[in-house]
Each structure stands twice: as C-alpha cells, then as structure tokens.
Design brief:
This protein is mainly alpha-helical. The chain has seven helices and two strands; from the N terminus they run αααββαααα. Strands 1-2 form a two-stranded antiparallel sheet. Helix 2 packs across helix 3, helix 2 crosses helix 5 and helix 4 packs antiparallel against helix 5. The protein is globular and about 65 Å long. The termini are far apart.
C-alpha cells in the first residue's frame, strides 16, 4: 500500500516540466543579464559571441535567440553554461576570460541560480576569478 501511495505522488510528464521551469527561467534571466553587461562593457566580445550563436550551423547552439535575446535553451542549464564558458574561452584571452567569468558569476548570483554556481565552483573556476574591483580600475 505504501508503494502505491508513493507511486501516485510521483511526478511524471508535465509535472516534471513545471518543476524545472523556474530554474530554467532564472537561468535565462541570468544569461540575458550577462549578455547585456557584455554588450555594454565589451562590445567587441559581444559581437564575437553573437556571431558564434548566429553562425551557419548554429542549430548546434543550445540557445534559441529572438533578436539578440536568449528566449529558450535546448539543453540543461548546466550544459548550456559549460557551452557558454567554452565559447567565451575561445573568443577571449586569459584576462578577458577571467573578467567575463566574474561578470557571469555576478549575473548567476543576481538571479539566484545556486545549482549552477556550485557547478562553477566545483570546476575550480572560482580559483581563477579576479577581483570585481579590478574590472573597474582599468
């Protein structure tokens, strides 16, 4: 009888989708916030990122764009974050990458996407982050 009670309360189908939406929505807000910061402070890097996401064959991009806004992700937020970090690493030098990771971390914190912050920290990205004040001293 206990098994049947647990089985009847099990999330399936649409229940699973609705339980994941808030984290995905928060992730989209964080990514768009980060994108706006990069667009404002690093327009050259922003154009490279935008080019990469809109390039021919961009069907492999985990992001669905409408205009220049990310409106959907096709994969898990943690995988999309890894993809974004890989692209950032490709289009910047080491110092630029550290600055952008710091901005990304701030955007993720702003929208309280804690499970993604844990992933970042577990991959020792935290060790490579620069002081946020250093960004504004330049």
């Amino acid at each position: 009888m206990e098994f049947l009670n647990r089985l009847s309360e099990l999330n399936v189908g649409m229940d699973l989708l609705t339980s994941k939406e808030p984290a995905q929505e928060q992730f989209l807000l964080a990514i768009n916030d980060f994108k706006e910061r990069v667009k404002k402070d690093y327009p050259y890097i922003y154009s490279k990122l935008y080019e990469r996401f809109r390039a021919p064959g961009s069907f492999t991009s985990p992001f669905v764009l409408k205009g220049d806004e990310v409106v959907q992700i096709k994969i898990l937020p943690s995988d999309a974050l890894r993809f974004l970090l890989d692209v950032l690493e490709d289009v910047t030098d080491e110092m630029g990458f550290s600055k952008l990771k710091t901005l990304l971390l701030l955007s993720l914190e702003k929208f309280d996407v804690s499970h993604l912050l844990q992933m970042l920290q577990s991959e020792s990205i935290k060790d490579k982050l620069i002081d946020i004040n250093a960004i504004f001293r330049e």
